[in-house]
Amino acid sequence: IYVLFPLRGRTVSLLKVVVFLSSTMSEIEEVFKRLQTHKGTKGLIAATSDGVPIRSTMEDGPTHTYCALVQRLVSKCSQSLKELDPTDDLTFLRIRTAKNEIMVAPEANYFLIVVQDNS
């Protein structure tokens, strides 16, 4: 069974989503509670490794944009890292811009995105 996510027009295995939800949602909720208390946190997003948002504190538009772009970035960084050292894995990605700091923690089945105010 596949589910169509209309904002991105992507199909994802429903089984993959169900497995993700059952195994990690309580863990993600704990992380969200802890990170929301940090000063300057603008948004938190959890997404499947395919870039499908599962939980977010941001509006739908920015959530889908961050998920799609960060998923591609994590994929490209992981591939590049494997070319440098095939035995190494990407564990954390931090991007600092003039306005924001975007932190990404990729896991096997999902990734977490934290967007913080840079000031």
UniProtKB/TrEMBL annotation:
<comment type="similarity">
    <text>Belongs to the GAMAD family.</text>
</comment>
<protein>
    <submittedName>
        <fullName>Dynein light chain roadblock-type 1</fullName>
    </submittedName>
</protein>
<dbReference type="Pfam" id="PF03259">
    <property type="entry name" value="Robl_LC7"/>
</dbReference>
<dbReference type="InterPro" id="IPR004942">
    <property type="entry name" value="Roadblock/LAMTOR2_dom"/>
</dbReference>
<feature type="domain" description="Roadblock/LAMTOR2">
    <location>
        <begin position="28"/>
        <end position="116"/>
    </location>
</feature>
